[in-house]
Amino acid sequence: MRHPDIDAFLAASALALRAATKGAAARAAEVVISRWQAAGKPGVAAERLPVCDWIAPALAAVAPERAALAAAFAAIEGQLRWARRASASIHEQTFWNGHANAVILGPGGLEARDDLWVGVTVMAPGVDYVDHHHAPEEVYLSLSPGEWWNSDMDWTDPGPISAIYNPPGITHAMRSGKEPFLALWYLPL
Ligand SMILES: [Fe+2]
Questions:
Q1: What is the rounded (10 degree) CA torsion for 118, 122, 126, 129?
Q2: Cα–ligand 1 centroid distance for 132 (angstroms)
Q3: In angstroms, what is the span from residue 54 Cα to ligand 1's centroid?
Q4: Which of 21, 89, 98, 187 is deepest in the core (most CB within 10 A)?
């Protein structure tokens, strides 16, 4: 049994993913959606970072088409364990102070499991998220303005109701502009 707030977030995620994806991204989304039908185990306790203060203004500016997803996310975000990327250095203050990630479902998440990753990234305005790569493919849904890059794609703002797809293993990055950045990510493991 899941908490109803997590169920509501997953239902809103499935609607938004299906509305925003096609092709490989849609296939990846369906794998993640099919896996989360079975609940995982209770996971980690909440932890917050100062950059989380950007979540509320980002949510306040969400596109109408993502308002239900944003509201469902707002209901659970206070339960998440927000953390910096493991590779972040305190000597790079803009990135150190300007980003946080949280796992909603997956290893180290609010719901612990090892067959998928559903998570979220928040960034202050004017932050570049470092280039990174990982074996699983990945679908991002944005809840704010922002740009994505991968080694097959120039910097792209997907717009408020679209999605970004990163094929397995590709090097990719993202960045905020003048507004705070908030995006959800969905990966089959
Ligand atoms: Fe990624």
A1: -40
A2: 7
A3: 21
A4: 98
Along the 189 residues of the chain, how does pLDDT read in single tens digits?
799 999 999 999 999 999 999 999 999 999 999 999 999 999 999 999 999 999 999 999 999 999 999 999 999 999 999 999 999 999 999 999 999 999 999 999 999 999 999 999 999 999 999 999 999 999 999 999 999 999 999 999 999 899 999 999 999 999 999 999 999 999 999
> What domains lie within the chain, and their CATH numbers?
4-188 (2.60.120.10)
| CA 133 to ligand 1 center in whole angstroms | 6
Angle at 183 between CA 34 and CA 124, to 5 degrees: 160
CA proximity to 167, closest of 147, 187, 145, 141: 187
Query: Environment class of residue 30 by beta-carbon count within 10 Å: exposed (0-12), middle (13-18) or buried (19+)?
Result: middle
What predicted TM-score, i.e. pTM, was given to this entire model?
0.97
